[in-house]
Design brief:
With 382 residues, the chain is α+β, with helices and mostly antiparallel strands. It is built from 9 helices and 15 strands. It has a 4-stranded mixed sheet. A hairpin with a 2-residue loop joins strand 10 and strand 11. Helix 2 packs antiparallel against helix 3 and helix 2 packs across helix 5. The N and C termini lie far apart (117 Å). It is found in: Cytoplasm. One of its GO terms (biological process) is response to heat.
Length: 382
């Protein structure tokens, strides 16, 4: 049976461009694929015929030979066909070669085969730096110099990884794809290229300083600005200040995580500050004035009401922490802690005992509590 014209098989004219031939092949291959034509006994033969036509027409040299000699170009060693006797698909290697092209078209978008798989350069890793600051520094903000151990571009090869700054060469094994294909029966399996380890490039003479990586380990000093209002958990991103990319790739980012040190006077709750202030028993009972510190280094005078109890709070508006993104300052809360005197002298003890006899009606919380206790006991007896 005479072979059909390859152009007729693909449904294109003789003057069709390479793109037109590939599109036609893609369309025909999907249409005639045996898996999609289980009820058509001729589908496999037609599918092979389409692949044979595409194998001949996709290559400019083979196409020129076919245009001049027809099918005879691939028979008896004539012309530049380089195929097998009796046709261009005498073995699975040719079939795999042709099918890999359509495989790229059909699935390239999902695995980055259309150039995206060419990993000429790799982005550097992001780095994390934990920075502890004082509450005062968080209140005022600060500029600080930190030392970050990281990978930086190699000065010897200018980050290329090649001796003398030469450009890396396209990997001869995978042609720059970073992957190689192996035929397993009807399917084509992709694996990471063993020659370039997926990079897509090889270096003939690696740089003696970085051994072909294009970067070296080094400590780098960075001056950073910490804005006022930061708190534990605040994250600051410095774009491009992370690890240098591999073989000239873009650098990663540096993330600075803030942790506030404990303060001996103040505790923080968002933008608000809390300060526990001890007061003498007499000041709590009689009232008075109290001078307290503020986070800005100043002082504020607070009036203690007569009869204040432990735990009573007073607010100083605007004396808290600034907002990280503006919005004014929080407040500062003073919490009173009435202090019981210790190491009393005999005279002080005598005066307190006399005071206690005269103050039975001056302790409302005690009276209420013991009245409730008496009712509880009476109820238990009943």
């Amino acid at each position: 049976m005479a072979k059909r014209d390859f152009y007729d098989v693909l449904g294109v004219t003789k003057g069709a461009s390479s793109d037109d031939i590939k599109k036609a092949y893609r369309r025909k291959a999907k249409e005639l694929h045996p898996d999609r034509n289980a009820d058509n006994p001729n589908a496999e033969a037609q599918f092979k015929e389409v692949n044979e036509a595409y194998e001949a027409l996709k290559d400019p040299d083979k196409k020129a030979a076919y245009d001049r000699y027809g099918h005879a170009a691939f028979e008896g060693g004539m012309g530049g066909g380089g195929g097998h006797p009796g046709g261009g698909f005498g073995g699975q290697g040719d079939f795999a070669s042709a099918f890999s092209d359509i495989f790229d078209d059909l699935f390239g978008d999902f695995r980055g085969a259309r150039g995206g798989g060419r990993s000429r350069a790799t982005r550097g890793n992001d780095l994390r730096y934990n920075l502890r600051v004082t509450l005062e520094e968080a209140y005022n903000g600060l500029q600080k110099t930190i030392t970050v151990p990281t990978a930086v571009p190699c000065d010897t090869c200018n980050g290329t990884g090649a001796e003398g700054g030469a450009e890396p060469q396209t990997c001869p094994t995978c042609s720059g794809m970073g992957k190689v294909r192996a035929q397993q029966g009807f399917f084509t399996v992709e694996r990471t290229c063993p020659t370039c380890n997926g990079v897509g490039q090889t270096i003939k003479n690696p740089c003696h300083s970085c051994h072909g990586a294009g970067r070296v380990e080094k400590e780098r000093a960075l001056s950073i600005n910490i804005p006022a209002g930061v708190e534990t958990g605040t994250r600051i991103r410095l774009a491009g200040e992370g690890e240098a990319g591999l073989r000239g790739g873009p650098a990663g980012d540096l993330y600075i995580f803030i942790e506030l040190k404990e303060h001996e006077l103040f505790s923080r709750d968002g933008q608000h500050l809390h300060c526990r202030v001890p007061v003498s028993m007499t000041t709590a009972a009689l009232g008075g004035d109290l001078e307290v510190p503020t986070i800005d280094g100043g002082r504020s005078r607070v009036k203690i009401p007569e009869g204040s109890q432990t735990g009573r709070q007073m607010r100083l508006r605007g004396k808290g922490m600034p907002g990280l993104r503006g919005g004014g300052h929080g407040d500062m809360f003073i919490e009173l802690q009435a202090e019981t005197p210790v190491n009393l002298t005999p005279r002080q003890k005598e005066l307190l005992k006399e005071f206690d006899k005269l103050s039975e009606s001056n302790n409302p919380q005690s009276s209420s509590f013991f009245s409730a206790v008496k009712s509880f006991w009476d109820g238990m007896k009943g």
